[in-house]
Amino acid sequence: MKTNDEYRKENKVLYHIFAEMHDGLDDFEHDWHNWNILVDQGNVNRMLREMVTGALVADGKCTEYDSKNYIDNLVEKYLTREVQPDEFFSKRNCGRCGGLLANGRTMSRFNTDCICLKCAEAEKTHPDYQKAVDAEISAIRNGNLNFKGIGYKPEGDSIMSIKINQKYPVKVGKNEVEVTVKAQTAKGWLVETAKGRTFPVNDINRFILPEAPKPQESAPKSKLSMLDAAAEILKEASYPMSAKELIAAMEEAGLWKSGRGLTPANTLSAGLNREIAGKENPRFKKTGKGMFALAEQAEAEGCVPCAN
Asked: How much is the pTM?
């Protein structure tokens, strides 16, 4: 028998799945609060499962007969993927474009990235999108609960290169007209000419995009100290991170490699705290329990130093 807290954790995932299927992620946090405050989360679980079952059957993703196993696999998939639910819902920035997630979030069909709704719509035009969807459904039905997606390859995904408020030449009949992209729509983009005339562009091929520069081989990175590497990661991240998150990011970026120490996160946390307490102008600031940011970024965002 599950506890109320275990039901609540599962219910949040169930409602996220339901909201995602009904384009309701914009109001997810507000609507989930109404379910979250209910006392009997076991009863909430039954209601949410009925809602998700109806949506899945209507979309042809499963039958009512096998819906229980299908939903169990979906929930387990969310709970066992690299991005855990609590981390997923607490992320501040889109894992693809870096924009804020204040207007909603979802998980990419290609990998475990937490992305904004604009990027979610944009990736639907990727040539491999249906392949990614089919692979995910097949993996779940076959019991692969740790499927991490087919991987996201931006090459050829030209939709991601169209930026809001940027100017591009657009084909209009046999002519080329320079326009400014004003907004992304469900079907394409709304653009504006220099004379103020607006019109939709629903075909990406009408944009005349510059050729992508050939990648240059980057110079090998010099070896950094643990604290210097942490500073580099925080500079790129622009949001607070824990010592454990910093260690993982430092190693993934190749900025620093763990030695023989068994607890590098504890070592880093101690080093950060020493610099904060001992230097007149420390590079770091503690923004919460176990959370660190660059001092200049924390001050710019008005973060209050944490005494813990």
From this structure: 0.34
